[in-house]
Design brief:
two-stranded antiparallel ribbon; about 90 residues; 3 helices; alpha+beta
């Protein structure tokens, strides 16, 4: 994924996001792996539902936080690319 495009991100099989009451934090769980999420990642991943495109996610976040769309897009694309590399999501 080199840009925003119309890709539809979705969690890969075996990966899921949930709130961990022990850690009091949102995490992505996978077999024998766990990713702790910061607040921006939580906001993005709450919108990863297998139906929304990357531009849809960017638009929703830009509206919610009244932030520049270009800034949001760059951050979302970078985060999603990182999670693709880690195998957590697919585009």
């Amino acid at each position: 994924m080199t840009g925003e495009g119309a890709a539809v991100p979705a969690f890969n099989r075996g990966f899921r996001m949930r709130h961990d009451p022990v850690r009091k934090a949102w995490v992505v769980l996978a077999p024998e792996r766990l990713f702790l999420l910061d607040e921006p990642a939580v906001e993005v991943l709450k919108l990863v539902d297998g139906a929304r495109t990357v531009p849809d996610i960017v638009d929703a976040l830009a509206a919610k936080f009244n932030a520049p769309r270009d800034t949001i897009a760059a951050d979302v694309v970078a985060m999603l690319q990182d999670l693709v590399i880690k195998g957590a999501i697919r585009l």
